[in-house]
Every structure is written in structure tokens, then in C-alpha cells.
């Protein structure tokens, strides 16, 4: 079953340059980016078809609503689309121990595909990427008490798996091949995730299209990333589960 649109992963405005130290995203950029509100607070989500979105499992349960095509949290943009959750499905192996932290949400109705709102592509095996970005409305700084008003983006680099596993092992956290980590760059504080960015996509470009490679999962306490890199859940290891779940509950 093909769950992808032929136009997936394209956007009108390619990027020019909590997401700490990020820059403001332009209109019609990141059209797959969703803002999710649940009983656990603010999270990111990513649209993968007209009716389905991905997020972090720890952002569930009880999703209140999801908003797509919005940059400013305080007001809607032209083309903003609001949906609720018809089905919330955390991965069956999710155990709150930093494993399988991925979830599917079936929207109450299909989104209208526009320049402002349309799905990202799902990843395949052994892909190479020219650039990767994280987007979100998370806290702007370590001292900020509220999430960013505007959607922000930051270009990031990926840390080698063994280096990430070694760093987090010092804190008693087991990093597996189903995780992905962002490289820690100078100067400090390093750009990356913060509160409110869970479930936000790592969008990577390959052959003029963007693919959702991973979803924001956890960071060092206080979003400091002095010693430990930001950690994401890779999407590709869960592709069989994604396809099977959508087949069971319906693409439309």
C-alpha cells in the first residue's frame, strides 16, 4: 500500500540558513510541521499523509488538537488547518524507558493539500542527505518559561552512533541503532531541542525532497547539552509498523 503523495517532501520556500538559537521559519516552509496539544502539553508532529501524522509516544494520550500550516502560535496564518485526533496509537514496544518512542495519529478528517500544508516523505534504507533541519515551537532559551511564539528552524549535523552511545552510557542511558543523535557544536549553548520540541521532525533533504528521518525524543536536563547530545527516535526502523497500522485503520 502506497501511503505517500507524489508531491511529498516539497515546499515553496526552502530554508536559508524548545529550538534553542534557531531562526524564524518563513511562510510556507515546513508544510508538514504540526503543532500538537495534549494533556502532556505542547509537542511537535509531522504530517505523513493526508490523514496521518507521527509524533513521540510520550506526547500521548488525550490529544486535544493538531494545527498545520501555522507559524505564529498566537494567531492563525492564511491556510492554517485545525484537526483533532480520531485514533492515537503509540508503538506497542514503547515503555517510557527511551525505547520505541514513536506514535501514529489518525486525524479526524483529511487535510487539504496546499502549498502551506502537505506531507513529508517517509525514509527508505541507506539514504544520503545534503542537509538536515529541526523545527519546533519549544523554549527559546534555558531560562525561558514559555514556548516560542514563532516556529523556528535550525540546521544540524548528525553525531556518529558510537560516540553518542558512549556519552549517554556515562549517564546510564542505553542508546541503540534505533536512536539518532545531534552533533554537539561550539560555541555553547549549542542549538537544539528543548521543552515543547518532543515529537518534532528531523527533516533531511535528498534529491530535492525532504524526508522525516527521526522525531525529537529527549535532551540533557535543562536543555544544556554541555555533555550529552539531543536524542531522536529514528523513523525507518518502525516503517513496517507504520504501514501495517495505516493498512489496518485505513489510509482515508
Automatic annotation (TrEMBL):
Q: Name the keywords, alphabetized.
A: Disulfide bond
Record protein name field: Peptidase S1 domain-containing protein
Q: Does the keyword Transcription regulation apply?
A: no
PROSITE patterns recorded = TRYPSIN_DOM, TRYPSIN_HIS
The keyword Disulfide bond is assigned to this record: yes
Domain Peptidase S1 positions = 19-247
Q: Which organism is it from?
A: Biomphalaria glabrata
For molecular function, the Gene Ontology terms on record are:
serine-type endopeptidase activity
Under InterPro entries, the record lists:
Peptidase_S1_PA (IPR009003), Peptidase_S1_PA_chymotrypsin (IPR043504), Peptidase_S1A (IPR001314), Trypsin_dom (IPR001254), TRYPSIN_HIS (IPR018114)
Listed GO biological process terms: proteolysis
This protein's gene is called 106077361
